[in-house]
Each structure stands twice: as C-alpha cells, then as structure tokens.
Amino acid sequence: MRVGFGVLGPVVAWDTDADGRAIALKGPRHRAVLARLIVARRRVVPVSRLVEDLWTAPPPGAVGAVRTFVAALRRALEPDRPPRAPARLLVTEGPGYALRADADAVDAWRFEQDVAAAATLPPDGALPRLEEALSRWRGPAYAEFADEGWSRGERSRLAELRLHAVERQAEARLALGRAAEAVPDLEAHLAEHPWREGTWRALALALYRTGRQGDALAVLRRARTLLVEQLGLDPGPDLRRLESDILAQAPHLAPGTARGGGAAQVWADAAAAYDRTVASGARTRLESTVGLLRDLSMTGGGGLLTARRQRVAAVAAAEELGDPELTARVIGAYDVPAIWTRLDDPEQAASIVAAAERTLAALAAGLEAPDDGVPGVEPPDHGEPGGQTPGQESADHEASEHAVTGHETPGHGPSGPGPSERAAPGRGATAHEAPGRVAPGHEDTAHGAPRRGASSPGVGGRAVGGREVTGRWASGREAVGREAVGREAVGRGSSAPGGDARGAPGHSTFGHGRAGEAATRHDAIRARLLATVAVESRGGHSGRGRQAARQAEEIARRLDDPALLAFALNGVFMQSFDRAGLAPRRDATGAELIALSARHGLVAFEVLGHLIRLQARSALADFASADRHAAAAERLGERHERPLVRVFTEWYRALRLAATGRSDEAEAAYRDAATRLDGAGMPGLERGLLPLALLCLRVERGRPAPTDPDLDWGPYAPWTRPLVLLARDRRAEAAAALRTVPEPPRDLLLEALWCLTGRAAIALGDRETMARARSVLAPAAAELAGAGSGLLTLGPVSRYLADLGG
Questions:
Q1: 223: closest CA among 248, 205, 249?
Q2: Which of 25, 31, 461, 716 could form a disulfide with 470 if both were Cys (CB 3.0 to 4.6 A apart)?
Q3: Cβ pair 458, 421 in contact under 8 A
Q4: Distance of CA 97 to CAs 1, 7, 50, 66, 100, Å?
Q5: C-beta of residue 385 within 8 angstroms of C-beta of residue 473
Q6: Which of 524, 168, 141 is nearest to 325 (CA)?
Q7: Residues 797-802: contacts with CB under 8 Å, at least 24 apart
Q8: Axis crossing angle, helix 28-39 with helix 149-175, rounded to the nearest 10
Q9: What separation in angstroms does the CA of 351 have from each of 70, 197, 524, 775?
Q10: pLDDT digits over 501-524, tens only?
Q11: What 3-state class would DSSP assign to 462?
Q12: What pLDDT, on a 0 to 100 scale, did the predictor assign at position 493?
C-alpha cells in the first residue's frame, strides 16, 4: 500500500490506496519516532540521537525500546511485507533509521512544494495552488510535540511559511479583484499575529477596494495604536504611505493595479462597471456568463470542470425564463472546440442535447410550424438520409447514410484516395497532404453503380455546402423553405439546376429587408443548436448526431458565416466515425478548419484543425505531416495560452515512438504523458487510457495482457477483459466475456477496440467474431489501428486482417 503522512496538525498516517484509511500508530513514542524521522527529511537519524530526543534521562533499555518502536511502525506501515524481507519505507541504514517517503507523501512537504510553485505563477495560477496548500493544515505543525527541542525549528519554519502563504493568498485575491474574499481570512490572521505590518496593509487595501474607505482608515489607525503602545514603534513606510493614499483616494489603489498591470486594471474596471450598470437579473448576464465559461474551459483543469458544470446551470436558468431565442443563444454560444470523442460526462451531454432539441422545437412552434413535421428536424424521407427522428435506431441506417456521408470504396474516396484526388472546393487541403472530401460524382456511387434514389451529377442535383448532392436528398429541398420548421419565412432556399442562386451561399432567399435579416438570424441560431447536438452526441449510434451535423454545415455554408462554419465542422468531425477507415475524410475536415480559421482569426478552431490532422495523418502513418501539425498546435497553444494542447501532443509523441518500434521508450513516454492528464479536467480521456496504451504495446510485441487486478481499465474494460482472462489462462471465462463484448462506440478508438476484439477471437477460435471484426476493419486496411486517436496504436490494420483471414 501507499502511505501518506500528516504533520500539519497531530502526527498521523493513512493508506492512500484505501481512501485515506487511518493507520494505527500505537503510543506517543511511536509517533515521536515517526515525527523525528520526518523532520530529518529522508536522512538517517542515528539510534543514539533518537534516544536523546525521546528521553530527557534515557532508561537503561532505551536503545532496545527504540528498536521495538521501529519494528511496530514497520508492521503498521508495511503490513504485507514478508518476514525477513527488507523494509521499503522505514529502512535501517548505517547507525540508524531513515524514512524513505516519496516527495509527495508528507503533507508538510507537499505544502512547501505548492507555496514554492505559487511564487512563480501569476495571481490566477497562484491562488488555487495556495488555497490547496493552506487546506492541508489541521492545526499547529507537529502539534503534540510542540515542546520538543527537535521539532522547534521545523515548527517555526513551517509556521512562518504558512503566514507567508496566507498573505500571498490575500495578495492574489486582491490582484484578481476579489477583495471581499480576502477580508475574513486577513482579519482572522491578524487576530493571531498582530505584529505583521504586511497583513495590516493588505486588510486595509482589501477594505478600501470593497468600498469601505472608513473601515480601511480605522484598520490603519488601529495598527498604529497597537505598534506605538505595545512596541513603542511607529508604523513602517508602507503603512504610512497607504494611509496617505487612501485619504487622497489615489487612482493606483483601484482594483487590479497593485499586481497584474494594465490588463488587470482593465478587467477590474470593466467588471465593476458591469456590476453597477447591468441589473443582477438581466438576461444579458446569462449570455455574458457563457462567454466567460467558454474562455474558462480553455484553461483546462478546474476551469474546464467549472465551465462544464456552470454551463448546464446557465442553460437551465435560460429555459426558466421561457425565451427560446435567449436559450438558443446561451446554448450555442458555448462553441468550445472538441477533439476527444469520448464524453467526459454522458449525463451532462445528454441534458445539453435535450435542451437543444427542446429549444429547436420551441423555435419552430413560435413560427407556427405545421403538425406534420418534427420541429427542428429534417422531415422523414423513408429510407433516405435524414429520415430518422432524434434517438431512433434503424437497421438499414448505414446503407441510407451512403448518399450523403460518402461511404466510398477504395479508389473512390477517403477509404482509398488515388493520387489524383483533391479536396473539395473550399476545403483548403492540398493534394499531397490532405486526401480530401470526395469529388462530386463519387459521393453517390457504390462499387461504381448509382445508389438507390441517386441521379447522375448535374441531373436533378444541386450544390449543398460546396458539394454535389443528388436524388431525393436534393429534390426534397427544391421548394424554398421546405424544412421541419415548415415556414417560408425561415426556409433555407435552394439552387435549382441551371444556376438559380436563390439559396446559394451568401445570398438571402428573402432579399435584404428585415424579414431576410430575421430569417438569417434565426437560421444561424438553429445552426448553432444543431452543431451543439452533433458535438454532444459524439460516439453514439443514433443517426441524429450525423443528421444535425449535416444540417448545421449546410446552413453555415449558405450564410457564409466563418465562425458558424467552424463550429459546424467540429460537429461534422465528431460525427465522422460511422465506420472504420475514415481518417482521410477527417483529414480534409481538419485542413478546411485550419484554412478557414487562419483567414478569420479563429484561433481555437485553428488549433482544433491541427489536432484533427495530427490524428488523421497518424492513422495514415504520415508522421512527417503529423509532426508539423503537432508543432503548429503547440505554437498556437503557447501564444494564446491553451494549456490543454500539450496534453494531446505529448501523447502523440509517445504514440510516435510506439509506431516506430521503440516500445521501451514509448512505455516511459506514455507514463510521463499520463501525468499531464491528472487534473486536466477531462475524465473521459483520463480513465483507463494509460493501461489501454500499455496493453496495445504488449499486444504489438506478442505479449499477454497484464493481469494486475488493481488496474483501472475505465470505459475500455469490456474490450480488454477477454485478453486479460486469456492471460490468466481462464479460457472459458474469456470466451464468455468475448460473447458479451458490445459494439465499440463510434469514436477515435473504433479500430483499436475492434483489433483487440479480433485478437481475442483469434486466440479463442471464435470464427463468428473473427468474421465480424474482419468485415468492420476492412475499410481501414491502409491505416494504423488506433493511431487515428493521436494517442496509441496496435500497428497496421492489414496485419490483423491477415490474421483474421481477410
């Protein structure tokens, strides 16, 4: 077990692997020995020194007693250590003993690390670190050994460091415009330590910045009285200067100017003005809040977690007001780029999707939509694309998706681009780097023959989003405004054969009057809701997410709105996992995002485009291109303060080592990369990923799966369990587990999980599962399994197909 130690209060120990279960340390002398060794900081303390420190007048058997105490401590701290095995934690070395605790195992050591780290950070980074550091204190350090000489120096040092941390915390709050939060802690701090002039100054400044000028002056006069009467000293220059500045209401005392410079000043002034002028219940506050949450989410860690939680609350608050347009804006304003396809919080995502669908319906109802269509959803076409209502599953959905999503055969699209293939117009991809969207004329063919309901390009077809769409998918929109909202005032329009530009991108079907502007605004709102549905429905099997992505993209292209199109393309990316082998298609989406975002200053989506291409080029084993996109993403991340970028690029570099046969280096790199996930705010990415990556390395080398029962496989457990059971030689259980393995989610690890399933099926001789895996993986024959995630790989899919008999 891993042991933690606490000395910031009474001396205690706990089992960190058992949710902090307390470890019994027996009597006070046992705890004194442990505390004395902690004070020594991993250095050896001779037995003779322990005897001197434990007794004023040592008894005759003192040395033997110390050895008894140490033996009892070892039994408590390492209960599973075999007899006569050397101790790992409390070791014997030379003339004495040492506690070889990890650097983060003692609360006092972690406190010091946090305070030291905070000193190098700006206020917004320092404050949470200091708050966490101060939360470790449970009372005076080494509380029960306050009178011992060996503890006195360490206790004084830690107490002084704590006082410094409290004052630094107050300074950070003041710099961030949170003066009111600083006041209570400073008052309590002064009650115990009234001689610290820095604290008096901070309290007076905090009171002044909360509008309590009189109280601030009273604090300074109280400090003067105390110092003169008790110590016979006048206040120092800082206190005297602050008193003069408060009396003069000096401008530099305004919030934000003490630390952080002009940016902090602007923020503080704007926030104060907003609070004064915008009523607390004003609806615009909700929209402003979502804008802040969007920016907060980019910081990762606690910022991302808070943003997601508050986003749900903001949507609920908007719905309470009963204004569908406001709710739509609140939902759609959170256009945070998403690169990982496994949901961090499925319940939360489902609540956002449900709110978006309700809002689509409410918007349609407000425009008097007819009863024969589903509000906010494309009208059913009975077997053609778009013919499913939200959440509906359909056995023939895969076939019906071909007409629009382009399930191409090798040589005719993303699954096997030929050398002459080019990205579709507007995609911004180059021929040598981004095998693009399928050219018109390839999208509606399967095995060289026209698909059901399709016509030849240019015959009864029209351009939708820069691509040729034919057959009933086109004809279903030939009438102006025929969509689920069912009203001409909000119709999309269309381009009729022959060049009628009534619905062409950038042209309003309704002219340039107010009605046209309202319709454009309404369409943009709908597109953001649809894009939200697409992004938050990722990884599922329902056709609704793909349908919403197509609709959002089509509207955005018609409106010629770059920011809206970028968000819609994020939805398109998230819904491009309906089968294996679609890395080229995602590569083209990433290329368009990069070009679009670079032209229009959409930094977050430019980063997204580079990360998408990093993933896609990795799947295609083009690591030279992937390296360039990793470097470009990192440059943008550093320049624009996007710390989460490094999480993905560090994992990519571990994947690159694995893909190039450097397994030992890859394992170490994976372990290092996993530390970046701690506190990154992405539980959907964090849980189980490191064990899965290491399993992939083992499978690549032909080694059995790890059998450690404590491994947390997270959401990947169903697909790893058969291999783990095989490694334990429990074939019957492995076969039973394989029979119950679910179909993998349609996400970045689709091919990897099918390869693991196929490997288990081969080992167990399960021909039915082998056939299923072979059928699913066949379109990805030219890819590296799992590398499309940018995180891990199992090697070439072609090798698994060969083993599966394909």
A1: 205
A2: 461
A3: no
A4: 21, 19, 9, 10, 10
A5: yes
A6: 524
A7: 797/580, 797/751, 797/755, 800/755, 800/758, 800/759, 800/773, 801/774, 801/777
A8: 60
A9: 56, 52, 22, 35
A10: 323 333 333 344 566 677 788 899
A11: strand
A12: 31
Q: Is 442 a residue whose pLDDT tops 50? A: no
**With helix as H, strand as E and coil as C, how does 640-682 read?**
CCCCHHHHHHHHHHHHHHHHCCCHHHHHHHHHHHHHHHCCCCC
| Distance separating alpha carbons of residues 15 and 2, to the nearest angstrom | 6
CA quadruple 68, 73, 79, 82: dihedral, nearest 10 = -50
For the chain, the farthest-separated pair of C-alpha atoms sits apart, in whole angstroms, at 109
Distance in angstroms (rounded) separating the CA atoms of residues 770 and 351: 37
pLDDT at 478: 29
Residue 588 CA: distances (Å) to CA of 365, 414, 437, 612, 631: 37, 9, 6, 9, 19
Q: By the 8 A CB rule, do 384 and 500 touch?
A: no
Q: Is the pLDDT of residue 382 over 60?
A: no
CA distance 588 to 423: 7
Are 545 and 574 within 8 A, CB to CB? yes
Other Cβ atoms within 10 Å of 94 Cβ, number? 8
What is the band of 98 on the pLDDT scale with cuts at 50, 70, 90? very high
**pLDDT of 286:** 84
Structure tokens at 98: 């040492």
The pLDDT of residue 370 is above 80: no
Render pLDDT for 578-614 as a digit per residue (tens, 0 to 9): 999 999 999 999 999 999 999 999 999 999 999 999 9
CA-wise closest residue to 194 among 240, 225, 159, 156:
225
Q: What is the pTM of this model?
A: 0.57
DSSP structural state of residue 746:
B
Cα angle for residues 9, 13, 16 (degrees, 5° grid):
120
Q: Which two tokens stand for residue 237?
A: 């220059």
- Checking 324-327 for CB contacts under 8 A at 24+ apart, the result is 324/359, 324/362, 324/363, 324/366, 325/363, 325/525, 326/283, 326/286, 326/287, 327/355, 327/359, 327/362
For position 380, what pLDDT does the model report? 33
Identity of the residue numbered 566: A
Assess whether pLDDT exceeds 70 at residue 434. no
pLDDT for residue 513: 56
